[in-house]
Model the fold of this input.
Amino acid sequence: MVRREVKLQAQALIAAFQFLTRFPVPLTVPFQGPVLSRSVPYFPLAGALIGLFLAVFSWLLHLVVPAFPSAVIVLAIWTALSGGLHLDGWMDTADGVLSHRSRERMLEIMKDSRVGAMGVLAAVLLLLFKASLLAELFVAEQPNRYWPLLVIGPIWSRAWMGAAIAFWPFARSGEGIAVLFNEVKGLQATASIVVAGASTWLILFLAGINSGTALVYLLVAAGITICCGGLLAAWLNRKLGGLTGDTYGAMNEAIEAVLLFAAVIWLHAY
Done:
């Protein structure tokens, strides 16, 4: 029994990285309920790996490349590390919910592989916003100050996806991501938040930030994530009668952007 649980947890860790990132993990695991439900607590670790990669790359660029080109390059890598999965969800969600059609029609639009005008506009505005925020960080701050903030965003945005899966209903019961993650409950979502908190604390400790400031960073990141994610989930649930895989990706993108925005405001203020 213990051996089986250890095996499932190992498979769950691998599944989280394979599902949420494009880092090569040359192992095959079953993408089935018992594994995927256990993968949710590891979502923040996938985000942490993406964030650490971005931090290292931005530091290398800082040595030779001006701030704005660096921001665009880092943002391109940021998007590529998830295979554009979340950005695709952002565009599909914008196409659907901004069409102002019936619930059924919005869900149909979101399933369409083609991207409409609203999706393109939403993607352009989001990418411009994130690129401008990264440029502000790179031009105003040294890497030793901003690098932990690049890691915190991807950690908490992916932790929120677990909470959204557990605490809001699926809009398309019995199909799509609902089939893959229908065993996720509050326990897994809570574990994901705990892992996000522990990962954040470790990152801030490695950055040499004192415990008082680290606690403030952690609480602010958690508070922004819960407020932003909760408002978005409630709004999307009201519009669609539940959430979908696309909306999880959209919330991930939104929370990353809001946390990055908060980081810029924080560093400019202090």
Notes: Residues 17 and 222 are 22 Å apart (CA to CA). The chain has one domain: 2-260.
